[in-house]
């Protein structure tokens, strides 16, 4: 018996591995999709893997649209999780101070 409830597949090209683990061991999986990886024709097995994933995490709205429009992944299966940088974590500076430095450095107004 396995002790895993869920596998997070961090790349569409690895999805066949977790798809077969799902079929053999019954472990559910989530697939993370990057725009550059899905903005092309995918093999039938990768499209099948995306459609059978319990959730697909897209890194942007445009990636979500590609998944739905080009690969027919149901909108209800797709969630967006944007990668980001928190300015407070860069220099341990308050965000307003960092923004002020960036505006001054690049002569930005507004």
Descriptive report:
The protein is built from six helices and four strands, in the order βαβααβαβαα. With 110 residues, the protein is an alpha/beta fold. The protein has a four-stranded parallel beta sheet. Strand 1, helix 1 (15-25) and strand 2 (28-33) form a beta-alpha-beta unit. The protein starts with 5 loop residues before the first strand and ends in a 5-residue tail after the last helix.
Write the layout of secondary structure elements.
Elements: E1 6-9, H1 15-25, E2 28-33, H2 35-38, H3 44-52, E3 55-58, H4 61-71, E4 78-80, H5 87-91, H6 95-105
Parallel strand pairs: 1-2, 2-3, 3-4
Helix pairs in contact: 1-3
Please give a quick description of this structure.
The chain has six helices and four strands, in the order βαβααβαβαα. With 110 residues, the protein is of the alpha/beta class.
Parts with pLDDT < 50 across at least 5 consecutive residues: none
The level of helicity is 40-55%
Gyration radius, to the nearest Å?
19 Å
Strand percent estimate? 15-25%
Measure the end-to-end span: 59 Å
Widest sheet, order of strands: 1-2-3-4
Mean residue pLDDT? 87
User: How would a textbook summarize the main sheet?
Assistant: 4 strands, parallel
- Described by its quaternary structure, the protein is single chain
* Structural class estimated from helices and strands: alpha/beta
The coarse overall form would be: elongated
The number of distinct β-strands equals: 4
Give the SSE order as H and E letters. Answer: EHEHHEHEHH
- Number of separate helices: 6
